């Protein structure tokens, strides 16, 4: 879990993803469209993939990917991010991290 916490704080917006996950891709595109360049960790390319998935679940992710962290804090997965975007609460949260 320490490694995941370290990784989640590498940049203002961090996304844990899998290279084949279309929802992860959609979340990445959303942030890029908002002018944010997130740090993306494709965990399926990491030898410790299972441990990372377990740590993300222990942190409160309903599904291991996509898992979005903003300012080092877990925001959630696709549902939470899209809900925040639709309610206009995502942009103020990412404003400090705009390119």
TrEMBL record:
<dbReference type="InterPro" id="IPR002109">
    <property type="entry name" value="Glutaredoxin"/>
</dbReference>
<dbReference type="GO" id="GO:0005737">
    <property type="term" value="C:cytoplasm"/>
</dbReference>
<keyword id="KW-0676">Redox-active center</keyword>
<dbReference type="InterPro" id="IPR011905">
    <property type="entry name" value="GlrX-like_pln_2"/>
</dbReference>
<dbReference type="Pfam" id="PF00462">
    <property type="entry name" value="Glutaredoxin"/>
</dbReference>
<dbReference type="InterPro" id="IPR036249">
    <property type="entry name" value="Thioredoxin-like_sf"/>
</dbReference>
<protein>
    <recommendedName>
        <fullName>Glutaredoxin domain-containing protein</fullName>
    </recommendedName>
</protein>
<feature type="domain" description="Glutaredoxin">
    <location>
        <begin position="13"/>
        <end position="75"/>
    </location>
</feature>
<keyword id="KW-0963">Cytoplasm</keyword>
<comment type="similarity">
    <text>Belongs to the glutaredoxin family. CC-type subfamily.</text>
</comment>
């Amino acid at each position: 879990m320490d490694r995941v916490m370290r990784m989640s704080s590498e940049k203002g917006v961090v996304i844990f993803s899998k290279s084949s996950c279309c929802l992860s891709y959609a979340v990445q595109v959303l942030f890029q469209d908002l002018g944010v360049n997130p740090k993306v960790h494709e965990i399926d390319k990491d030898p410790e993939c299972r441990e990372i998935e377990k740590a993300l679940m222990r942190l409160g992710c309903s599904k291991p990917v996509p898992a979005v962290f903003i300012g080092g804090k877990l925001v959630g997965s696709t549902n939470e991010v899209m809900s925040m975007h639709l309610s206009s609460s995502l942009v103020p949260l990412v404003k400090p991290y705009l390119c």
